[in-house]
């Protein structure tokens, strides 16, 4: 019975088997300059059919510019964009098999919901009956059957978002681009809509490329995430890869929260690495080989939930992985508590612990001296 | 004991303005009304009263003397008599000159408005889509002609369109016979379009510049070629600007006097000229006043229609 999940994994994750799968969208060495400003720099990216790919980055990271180049609103300064095997670089937006859902939704204010959805179909010159049938189908898909005659300004934010989605899906695009699709919604509505969006994407099998600055959104939606920083792709990977195995200090800091310490390699063996860290006041024992040299300066990042707090000094691993400090702050978040531990070096660690005991009277409290320990594979060694 | 009782608030210090406000409030006058009173008085003194005077004169009859019309009210042995002459208005409908002048004015104003729109729309669009640092300079250029006297600019136009004017001299270089432009309807159209173009461009610009660029992108994204984006998105959304600009050109163009008399020929019949002739050549003040009142009605009706249309478009 072990075969099935494995096969499934290959079927739904074509990027894991690049030899046998042709990418659907192929971005090759694309750069975009606005005057002297480099918005996108030498980005290469392959996206596969039926993927829900998230471009994640802060403002000015170039993620929106990249999306606009896919839609055809901007032309790359250099590089090529291929969609479904066709070079799209010189194709104007109205001839691309691509539709976009705009951040502002960009609904036509002078048209009703139905007219908005039918707009693209009318431009294709479809017969009237066919357009009407398709519009009804889409209204049902986004659960707005009773709102067809309304104007956009008579709708709530969430309803407008759904009209924008329906309009973008109307022409059955091969590729749907979504620019901050949930950005204008409040938190609760956003969470509901996230799952709806994924459901619709799975139902239709359309390839989605979503631009977002919200990492939680990217984590929930994406099959893969491309983290962008200053016009370049910092990392491409599945959400778990990005979170658990960041490839650089930028990614580790950008996604979630991470404790980052500097250290020097003191032992460099094929099966383990020892890092001396004066910031932590102890050695870090890493249970796998790392591509580094003895005495090399590097960084080690660990997530707050990967560490354990205790009052008694734990045994540690190979005389390493135990730091000590004083509890400075405690943030009680209900399910977890986040402790800020001040180490002797002045470095502060954030450690989160699950509140598994109800109203625990013996919980670690302010000003206590505590020990922090972690597993040999709990952190990531970063050389850049 | 005279300790301070905390339940009694300290006496509020009265500013002089508070006293004034309270005094006015007692008579039933609020600050909002005060603000409105100034423009209301202005309108009353400089618009409604003169209009009433003109309307009054239109109901009198011409006579020789000073003033050149019969009095509206006469008193004879303690009884006040009101004499209304309606024949001025009746003449407006029975004399072909007036009807023809009104129709001709509307026609010329309408054609000029359409030409102004066709010329002004691309200019307004280009300014609205120009880079930020260019926009204000271009707008300045649109308004710049207002810095020179209107009369001077109309005279300058005659310099261009005269028989031996700039245009004909230029055409002469290529051996083309001089074209007669002055004293024709063509010259009147040129004059009106040239003079009123800024009134068309400015409201068009304000609506076009506010349009969200992502609407055009959405239209292109959904497969609309640029011409379709213009027809189905840009044009309907700029309708309020089109209506406002057309109103600002059409209404003053109907009553235009200077342009037809300086540039137009004898056959260019416009109500403004008829009005001038009645006042100054025929010294028929009552008839001229009737022409003016009728013109007001001619202008008010399209304003009301346009405002209704505009209200329907905005619909918010």
TrEMBL record, chain A:
Claim: Metal-binding is one of the keywords in the record: no
The entry's keywords: ATP-binding, Cell inner membrane, Cell membrane, Membrane, Nucleotide-binding, Translocase, Transport
Catalysed conversion reaction: ATP + H2O + polyamine-[polyamine-binding protein]Side 1 = ADP + phosphate + polyamineSide 2 + [polyamine-binding protein]Side 1
Pfam families for the chain: ABC_tran, TOBE_2
GO BP terms in the entry: putrescine transport
Domain ABC transporter per the UniProt entry, residue ranges: 25-255
A GO cellular-component term linked to this record: ATP-binding cassette (ABC) transporter complex
Gene3D superfamilies, per the entry: 2.40.50.100, P-loop containing nucleotide triphosphate hydrolases
Assigned EC number: 7.6.2.11
An example Gene Ontology molecular-function term: ATP binding
Top enzyme class: translocase
Quaternary structure and interacting proteins, as annotated: The complex is composed of two ATP-binding proteins (PotA), two transmembrane proteins (PotB and PotC) and a solute-binding protein (PotD).
Membership in a protein family: Belongs to the ABC transporter superfamily. Spermidine/putrescine importer (TC 3.A.1.11.1) family.
Biological role: Part of the ABC transporter complex PotABCD involved in spermidine/putrescine import. Responsible for energy coupling to the transport system.
Protein name, UniProt field: Spermidine/putrescine import ATP-binding protein PotA
TrEMBL record, chain B:
The ABC transmembrane type-1 domain, residue ranges: 102-306
SUPFAM superfamilies: MetI-like
Biological processes, Gene Ontology terms: transmembrane transport
Localization terms from the record: Cell membrane
One GO CC term on file: plasma membrane
Transmembrane annotation, as ranges: 34-59, 99-125, 137-156, 186-209, 230-254, 285-306
Keywords: Cell membrane, Membrane, Transmembrane, Transmembrane helix, Transport
Keyword Iron recorded: no
Entry-linked PANTHER family: INNER MEMBRANE ABC TRANSPORTER PERMEASE PROTEIN YDCU-RELATED-RELATED (PTHR42929), PUTRESCINE TRANSPORT SYSTEM PERMEASE PROTEIN POTH (PTHR42929:SF3)
Family: Belongs to the binding-protein-dependent transport system permease family. CysTW subfamily.
The name this protein goes by in its record: ABC transporter permease subunit
Record organism: Devosia marina
Source taxonomy: Bacteria, Pseudomonadati, Pseudomonadota, Alphaproteobacteria, Hyphomicrobiales
